[in-house]
Fold each of these.
Amino acid sequence: DAKTTQPPSMDCAEGRAANLPCNHSTISGNEYVYWYRQIHSQGPQYIIHGLKNNETNEMASLIITEDRKSSTLILPHATLRDTAVYYCIVRPSPKGSSNTGKLIFGQGTTLQVKP
Amino acid sequence: ETGVTQTPRHLVMGMTNKKSLKCEQHLGHNAMYWYKQSAKKPLELMFVYSLEERVENNSVPSRFSPECPNSSHLFLHLHTLQPEDSALYLCASSQDALYEQYFGPGTRLTVT
């Protein structure tokens, strides 16, 4: 399984865009990039995922570099409620009978949104 | 509200007790998961069920015993736990193994 590297912590001013980077240089061609976040004392929350194209939903945008070795999660207008640990996860290949849907969580990035 | 509920939310038990954690999903999903989150450690996958069949046991000690009676319910039976088993236990579900997972709020377990 490809591993990911994220900065341990970041600060962002309320109302500004939060850009969270993730390196996944060993990602293979059919592995997806997933982002989850975990607000203190709650279960993780799915945010967004992508394969090679940039993706956007009501929560965030995901920018994946052309070589797919890194990605950036963008929260366009961060609020205090976006303070959380953000996890970048490379999903095991969906092909093959061995895929059980396992998510491998790292330490993530603790994002602190400040007033 | 993610559509995944867990009970109890908090549990304190002695090392000789037997207790069970319950998870229920109201999303019509076919896969369910148990994760453990210890203090200052990443989430660790414990078990995966797909269509009520256990498809992964991530080297979990036998004092943790999962049960999936149907696709909407998942239990984790606990017996003779150790203090180091104190953690947040999270349940998740997904449409199947290929899709994003939705997590419950977790059960905060303390073993005394």
Note: Chain A touches chain B at residues 34, 41-46, 49, 94, 99-108 (CB under 8 Å).
Amino acid sequence: GQQVMQIPQYQHVQEGEDFTTYCNSSTTLSNIQWYKQRPGGHPVFLIQLVKSGEVKKQKRLTFQFGEAKKNSSLHITATQTTDVGTYFCAGPRRGSTLGRLYFGRGTQLTVWP
Amino acid sequence: NAGVTQTPKFQVLKTGQSMTLQCAQDMNHEYMSWYRQDPGMGLRLIHYSVGAGITDQGEVPNGYNVSRSTTEDFPLRLLSAAPSQTSVYFCASSYADRGLLNTEAFFGQGTRLTVV
């Protein structure tokens, strides 16, 4: 089954509102990655977090990795219509085979103009 | 730069037919994976490879075979297509950076497969 749980599954916001998606793992993750998939497109890498408690920012996007390295979040400030898509977290389980990523089910973001 | 190339982009199969989805990467990446994406299910790992000649099963391997004879190519074979295999299939590649377990995965454009 899924090793990485992601909530919510869907989120509808009005343009300008904030958005957050959460990722939780049942086991410790050595690192976590975030991807964005536009409708009809393929997943595109956004960022990787490695250190416990790490926080990284990309313009309006803020990514956090939990202290226990079992959870992570992506926060978008003041959403725009260009933010529409599905956001996935992915991580290898600690000690798992290299190159083997477990993806969350994703959060589908809709932004109303 | 081609990156990860998947062919075909669309395919319709009849139940029981077999076919091969092609995946090629030109980045000399060690790791290659196949995922299927179904509505509400995210990306589920079918098979993966850590190098030429080495493959292993993912979460949902039944009904699929893979081989990795070269670093560049990682074809996915459907042995006897079933309607439950209707899905979007993505191939991805990545490399291992010293000090990190994984680096970013590069995805192909996907193959939309319908089995009738």
Note: Chain A touches chain B through 28 residues (CB under 8 Å).
